[in-house]
Amino acid sequence: MDKLTSKKALLDSIRLSEGAKFECDENAIFEVYNTQGENKSSLAIKVLSIFGGFLATLTFLGFLAIAGLYNSEFGLLIFGIGFIISAIWLNKAYDKLIIDTFSIAIYVIGFALLAFGLLEMNVDENIIAILISLIALSSLIITQNFILSFISVLAISGSFIFLIISNNSYDLIHLYVAINTLILTYLFLNEAKIISSNKRLSQLYNPVRIGLVISLLFGLISIGKRHLIPISQSHIWLSSIVMILVTMYLVYTIIKINEINTVKSKAMIYTLSALILVSTIFSPSILGAIVIVLLSFLVNYKTGLAIGIISIIYFVSQYYYDLNFTLLTKAIILFVSGIMFLLFYLFTTKNLNTNEKI
Amino acid sequence: MKKIEREDIKIITRHSNWSEKSIDNILKKNIYSDKESWHKFLRLFFISLGVSFTTAGIIFFFAYNWADLHKFIKIGLIEGLIIISTLVILLSKISLDIKNILLTGTSILVGVLFAVFGQIYQTGANAYDFFLGWTMFITIWVFVSNYAPLWLVFITLTNTTLILYSQQVAHDWSLVFVFTLLFIINILFLTTSLFGKKINGKIKVPIWLSNLLAFASVSFGTIGIVFGIFYENQTSFFVLIIITSILYGIGIKYGLKLKSGFYLSIIPFSIIIIISAFLIKLSDDAGMFFFISLFVIGSVTLVIKNLIDLQKKWIN
Question: What is the value of pTM for the model shown?
Answer without folding.
Answer: 0.81
